[in-house]
Amino acid sequence: WLVGSPPVLELPRVDCEGTPWPFPLLGLELDSASADIFNLVDAMEDGLRHFHITYPTYSEVKDDNRNEFESRLMALRLAEMLNRIRKHHLQYLRAGIGFSIRTPPHLMPAFSEIRKAVTANRMQMFAWLLDARGVPRAQVAECWAHMSQAKRQGEVKVIGLFGGGAAAVQAAKSVARAAPVSVYAAE
Q: Is 0.90 topped by the overall pTM?
């Protein structure tokens, strides 16, 4: 083996306040199309321990009933996948697996459904990102107030923004009693 190299190679991680372990910089993105038990099992066997749940981006906002249906459907698919981990004899990895979620403003209620699916299987939901791409500042501030409350209540350890630039960060900071932007991600 190479002199000075660690005996085991691990995926890169970075310390992030609020997470129980260093935040993995590499993970598997799961959406309604890719939420498949075989993708999850393959990723776990390959050493991935961070799974990021996303929703498709639409050019128009759907009605409230459709948004609620989409949220629940994804939560049910995720719960089914996580329950099937036992059949693949990977349940011993639960303590080291973490989930994050990225929601657009119109799917904010999806967080609680997804969180229930993850925590019911004794895994951690440690980060919630608001997809702020193209979102007006007032709507970012409204969503950030809701996310800050969820963080204060202990439902999630880290909240952050995905896209939106400096305007989204300033909108989040303008909220009274707001939690800090712990993570900022962009494409």
A: no
How big is the CA angle at 91 (ends 86 and 92), to the nearest 5 degrees?
Answer: 150
Residue 71: name the closest of 33, 108, 44, 43 by CA. Answer: 108
C-alpha 147/C-alpha 141 separation (Å) is: 10
The model's pLDDT over 90-112, given as tens digits with 9 standing for 90+, comes to: 777 777 788 899 999 988 988 99
- Helix and strand tally (H, E) in the chain? 5, 8
Q: The tokens 């991935």 sit on which residue?
A: 48
The number of beta carbons lying within 10 Å of the beta carbon of residue 139 is 15
Identify residue 18 by its one-letter amino acid code.
G
- Whether the CB-CB separation of 157 and 177 falls below 8 Å is answered with no
Strands 23-24 and 13-14, sheet pairing: antiparallel
Long-range contact pairs involving 173-180 (C-beta distance under 8 Å, separation at least 24): 174/141, 175/141, 175/144, 175/145, 175/148, 176/145, 177/148, 178/144, 178/145, 178/148, 179/147, 179/148, 179/151, 179/152
The set of residues, in sequence order, having a beta carbon less than 8 Å from that of 102 and lying 6+ positions away, is 52, 53, 54, 55, 129, 130, 131, 162, 185
Half-sphere exposure of 116 (CA within 13 A, CB side): 11
Q: 91 by DSSP, 3-state: which?
A: helix
